[in-house]
Each structure stands twice: as C-alpha cells, then as structure tokens.
Amino acid sequence: MQLQKTQLLAWKILNHGKRFVNTSMTREKSFRKAYQEFWSPKPMNKPPYEHFTQIGDPVLRTKAAEVPEELIGSKEVEHIVEKMIKVLRKFDCVGVAAPQIGISLRIIVMEFREGLKDILPKPIYDARKMSTLPLTVVINPTLTVTNYEKHKHPEGCMSVRGYSAEVERFNSVLFKGKNLNCIENEVELSGWNARIAQHEMDHLDGKLYIDRMDSSTFICTCWETVNAKSGRVEIPFYK
C-alpha cells in the first residue's frame, strides 16, 4: 500500500505543471469544442522546461507545493533538480526556483561562481557585497531574517527577461532546507547571496521582484542599444 502511494505521488510530481489534460476519450466532444481545440495552439514542450517561464505564465503566480518527504530523494525529484542546474548554468544565472522551469514545487538551486568576480566590475562586486556561493540545492526551504538592515540594488529576473529595477532586500538571512539526500542543511547568507535566497523564495510564493521594486527605477536593460540600433534589437528567450 505504501509503495502504491509513493508511486502515485511520484507520478504526480513528474506530471506536475502540465496544463493540458485530455478527458475526451471517454465521451464524444461537441462540434463547438472540437472546432475550438482544432484551432487552439498545442504545446510542443512540457515541464520541466530547459528555458525560463515568463511573466504571464500562471505557474509564476501560484504558491508552490511542498515536496512530499518520501519523495525528496526520488528519481523524479532528482530529474527536476538536474534540469534546474542545467538551466541555471546554461543561462549563466545565480538562482532558479522550480516554478521557473514550469514545476510548482518548493525547490531552489543557487550558485555564485568564483569566475564571476573576474567578469563583474570590481566597484559593483564590492558595492553589492557579492561573494562566491557553491552549488546549493534546497528542498522545502525556510528563510529567517537575521539582519533587518536593508540594501537597495538593481535586480533582474530571467522570468521578466530584459528588464530590471531597484529592490530593497534584507542584509542577512538563515536559509534552511533538505538536499537530495534528505539531509537538513542550514546556511547563513549575507549581502548578494542573501538577496538571491530572498528572490528565489518569492518565486515559491508566487511573487516576482516587480512586486517589491521601486517602480520609478524599472527599466529595459537594453534601452540604449534599442536607440542606437533604431529599434532593431531582439531579446532572446533561449540559449
């Protein structure tokens, strides 16, 4: 009985986020419905995606569900985490939440590579209190503020592609959760890494940085290029 329950939960996780369910096999569809479905676009891709979902997708505005305890170390959850890591590194990001690849579960992956120190201008790296963060996988995370001092810096999101705005975040947080081995971990984060954790936690609660931003600072990150190129600029959603 327990095995059957676990297999059912695993199936639900693997299929979580699929938005198109066909129940017409058991009854005849009306002509109107069949006609509408014929002209409706059919999804060519299913989550977990290898791209970032974009604002407007309902999955980004839904509070994510906790991963059942007995499935934390399962192949299904491992598959989702592997996809998250792949997308994180493919797009050169520092954080990704499961809803951003179409899976409404409470999973976060973060990484601030050492090499970024050589890419980013030193004044920015120092002013934003950036530091290396090894690959961190957190399942069913909790976040506790440990330093209520706030800092305001520009913040972007791969799910609001091509834009940024200044956002206030707490200086330090205690981040807890389980890894794929079902081991409880906790890490004290400060500066930019604390910002990453707060940003990704917002995703799990159906929130985006635009809900917290100083709206007067909201910009298109390539506005100067748009002018220089007479508007002939594309923002890619793939890589």
Automatic annotation (TrEMBL):
GO terms for molecular function: metal ion binding; peptide deformylase activity. It comes from the Eukaryota. GO terms for cellular component: mitochondrion. It catalyses: N-terminal N-formyl-L-methionyl-[peptide] + H2O = N-terminal L-methionyl-[peptide] + formate. Its EC number is 3.5.1.88. The gene is PDF. Keywords: Hydrolase, Metal-binding, Protein biosynthesis. The keyword rRNA-binding does not apply. NCBIfam families: PRK00150.1-3 (NF001159). GO terms for biological process: translation. This is Peptide deformylase. Belongs to the polypeptide deformylase family. Removes the formyl group from the N-terminal Met of newly synthesized proteins.
